[in-house]
Write a structure and sequence with these properties.
Elements: E1 5-12, E2 18-25, H1 28-37, E3 41-47, H2 56-71, H3 76-86, H4 90-104, H5 109-114, H6 122-134, H7 137-192, H8 200-214, H9 216-233, H10 237-248, H11 253-274, H12 279-289, H13 293-307, H14 312-319, H15 324-336, H16 339-397
Antiparallel strand pairs: 1-2, 1-3
Family: Belongs to the GSP F family.
Transmembrane segments: 161-184, 204-231, 361-386
Protein name: Protein transport protein HofC
Length: 398
């Protein structure tokens, strides 16, 4: 539905009542026909702005509310219409109404969701389809909303833990550059008026300032090249595989990234197992939900080995990215027939561990970064004011 456009309409019913709303349609003619099928006579049809961003938190909020309405005994179509009327975002109002219209025409919800791949991931489609087949749609929607919310919170915490040192170091570099290029030259001009040798530390800092000023353009270019190259390569599958391997081998960041992905994978597997989906199909859902090609290759390799008759725990062991605890619990669950319970325990374990690691990382980096920035700025301040004491000694001797 990438070609869909958002339209704002105003129309009259057969009874002469004025109504208005929004809807998704490919073009004006399609929107006009859709209104006529609802016995609405269009008075105005205006295309809205083309810039639409789908926020993930709206998605799991909708499914959480949908599960509540279904549990209260409302029909699926009526629930979607109610959500469309109450949603604060215009584009979601139109989307939910479109889903309700598809249901009224005899379309299954999973099929209707499949028309919006930019909004609903394959996991949503798979879980809803399972709920439709098993008659547990309300339970599947509730579990799906909980899983997506937990995953979103985990992603936000990990990004926050990784973003903090970058911001601090960037500010430190900005302060150093400002002092070296703006403040130090003024002190250097003052010191030149006195015929007194400068301390070694001050000479080194002054030399650094001169070097930065003379080579500023080249240094700025060299600093901009890596971010630009990474930005352009970020969507290349080969670069994503290489960068993920590098990140996983880092001392602290590797454990954080590994725990985040393992928590996501085991959560999806646990969710699909509890919904009654076959394990191989659950692996397919997990493969579709991860974005990095490295992890897709890992899950695809495991799926192929299991299809060839290899035990589940052995396929996880050959992947060489799962912890010994994962292998042990999966093997226990496979032997005892409680694989869904073990997967759920692994999902909780990795998510809680990653939350704790993110908190520990932020707590550890804060004092270290304060010390580093303090040493850098303190050295510059001492280098600037140290000659003043030498000048005072020279003037006293004179």
């Amino acid at each position: 539905m990438a070609a869909n456009q958002l339209w704002r309409w105003r129309a009259l019913t057969d009874e002469g009542e004025l109504q208005n709303g929004v809807m998704w349609a490919i073009n004006r003619e399609t929107a006009f026909s859709a209104l006529m099928r609802k016995a609405l006579h269009p008075l105005a049809l205006v295309r809205c702005s083309q810039h639409h961003r789908w926020q993930s938190h709206h998605c799991y909020d909708v499914f959480r509310q949908l599960a509540t309405l279904l549990k209260a005994g409302l029909t699926l179509s009526h629930s979607l219409e109610m959500l469309a009327q109450q949603h604060p975002v215009t584009q979601w109002q139109a989307l939910l109404q479109s889903l309700a219209d598809d249901l009224s025409e005899g379309c299954a919800l999973s099929t209707a969701l499949k028309k919006w791949p930019e909004v609903f991931s394959p996991l949503y489609v798979s879980m809803v389809k399972t709920g439709e087949l098993t008659g547990k749609l309300e339970e599947c929607c509730r579990q799906l909303a909980q899983q997506q919310k937990s995953q979103q919170l985990l992603n936000a915490k990990v990004k926050k833990a990784l973003r903090y040192p970058v911001i601090i170091l960037t500010l430190a570099v900005a302060v150093v550059l400002a002092m070296v290029t703006l403040v130090l030259p003024e002190f250097a001009a003052i010191y030149k008026t006195f015929n007194t040798p400068l301390p070694l530390l001050t000479q080194m800092v002054m030399g650094l300032a001169v070097f930065i000023q003379e080579w500023a353009i080249i240094l700025a270019t060299l600093m901009l090249i890596p971010p630009v190259v990474i930005y352009r390569l970020r969507r290349h599958a080969r670069w994503q595989r290489v960068s993920q391997r590098i990140v996983l081998n880092l001392p602290v960041m590797g454990a954080l990234a590994r725990g985040q992905k393992l928590g996501q994978i085991f959560t999806v597997l646990s969710l699909t197992q509890q919904a009654g989906i076959a394990f191989l199909q659950g692996l397919e859902s997990a493969e579709e939900t991860v974005e990095n090609p490295f992890w897709r290759d890992v899950i695809q390799g495991m799926r192929e080995k299991i299809e060839q008759g290899m035990p589940v725990w052995s396929a996880f062991h050959h992947a060489a990215v799962f912890t010994p605890l994962c292998i042990q619990l999966i093997r226990t669950g496979e032997v005892s027939g409680a694989l869904d319970l073990m997967l759920e325990n692994l999902a909780h374990h990795h998510m809680e561990q990653t939350f704790q690691q993110a908190d520990n990382l932020a707590a550890l980096l804060e004092p270290i970064l304060l010390i580093v920035t303090g040493v850098i700025i303190g050295t510059l301040v001492v280098a600037m004011y140290l000659p003043i004491f030498h000048l005072g000694d020279a003037m006293s001797a004179g």
